[in-house]
Design a protein that fits this description.
The complex is a heterodimer of chains A (about 180) and B (about 120). With about 180 residues, chain A is mostly helical. Chain A contains nine helices and no strands. Chain A has helices spanning about 5-10, 15-35, 40-55, 60-65, 70-85, 105-125, 125-140, 145-150, 155-170. In chain A, helix 1 (about 5-10) packs across helix 2 and helix 7 packs across helix 9. The longest helix of chain A has 23 residues, at about 15-35. Chain B contains six helices and no strands. Chain B has helices at about 5-20, 30-40, 60-65, 70-85, 90-100, 110-120. Classes of the chains: A mainly alpha (about 180), B mainly alpha (about 120).
């Protein structure tokens, strides 16, 4: 069932649609907010706020003609950027958690170190570059959808993601050994 | 290749991004509960089914014409008609007779004559 169908059902008062939308969309919103903010508590606040806005527009959703995920990514990013503008980025205090499936303690520590380093590097990028890199290379979205989210043309998205990726590589260049890539 | 180190760096970065993609952060169950509570609180109520109106035994066409007042009027008219049929007032009988048959009965003597002649 598509997100739009669930939204229509939600608007008619189906409680099950509310549950399905929550479990389907909240993790995506939270992951995106955490990548952009680097802070778990703030990411949770943004997630709740973005989802609240989704519930509030649900009765009129059919008239918007938008894709639910695109709309949500845009709202989430705007909420994150507002927070970042109000408060300059601080040092990373919460890297995304890893699920409990890592094979061993050593590998798990290594993975954790890599994710911490990646998140720290992401936080050094300009906000729009970070958003583009996260959407393209971590969320795995296509350039047209990223353009719709960021209000940019496809070429501008390509340019932004390419510059962001180069900047990430430069930031992480001196940490190969620390990240366990020396012997790969 | 002079930039062999940099090329390796790009491969490492792709690997790092792939790891991040494969391991998305998981939201706290408390957050999911809060979001779901908001969802249910903001959700429009399903339209309540209106209780069925008590059915009248008057036919629909009579209800459309006005319901009980119309039925009472029609009943009174019908009863009056029946009473007049059984015991018409004298004035009504005379008036009706003149209206129906005229001042006198019209006979055709010629027709009667012809019939008599034929009978021989």
């Amino acid at each position: 069932m598509t997100d739009a169908t669930l939204m229509a059902r939600y608007a008619t008062g189906e409680a099950d649609a509310a549950r399905q939308l929550t479990t389907r969309l909240t993790p995506r919103v939270y992951a995106h907010a955490l990548r952009l903010l680097g802070n778990r508590a703030e990411a949770e606040d943004v997630t709740q706020e973005a989802m609240l806005r989704l519930w509030q527009v649900a009765p009129d959703w059919q008239h918007t003609g938008a894709q639910v995920s695109t709309w949500l990514y845009r709202v989430t990013a705007n909420l994150c950027l507002d927070r970042l503008r109000r408060k300059p980025a601080t040092a990373l205090d919460d890297a995304p958690d890893l699920p409990d499936g890592a094979p061993g303690a050593e590998d798990r520590l290594q993975s954790r170190a890599r994710m911490d380093a990646l998140q720290a590097a992401l936080m050094q990028l300009p906000d729009r570059q970070r958003q583009a890199v996260v959407l393209r290379h971590i969320e795995g979205l296509g350039n047209p959808e990223i353009g719709a989210i960021m209000g940019l043309g496809t070429r501008a998205v390509e340019s932004l993601t390419a510059r962001g990726k180069r900047a990430l590589a430069d930031i992480l260049a001196g940490r190969k050994t620390e990240l366990g890539y020396e012997d790969d | 290749m002079t930039d062999q180190g940099k090329a390796l760096e790009t491969g490492d970065l792709d690997d790092l991004l792939a790891q991040a993609r494969a391991n998305p952060p998981v939201p706290n169950p408390d957050l999911l509960a809060r979001v779901q509570a908001d969802a249910l609180a903001q959700q429009p109520r399903a339209p309540a089914r209106a209780p069925a109106a008590p059915r009248s035994w008057l036919p629909e066409w009579l209800l459309a014409l006005g319901g009980w007042p119309t039925a009472a009027g029609l009943g009174a008219v019908a009863l009056t008609g029946v009473l007049i049929g059984f015991a018409p007032p004298d004035a009504l009988s005379e008036t009706l007779g003149i209206w129906l048959y005229g001042d006198s009965l019209w006979l055709d003597p010629l027709t009667a004559f012809d019939l008599t002649a034929l009978e021989g």
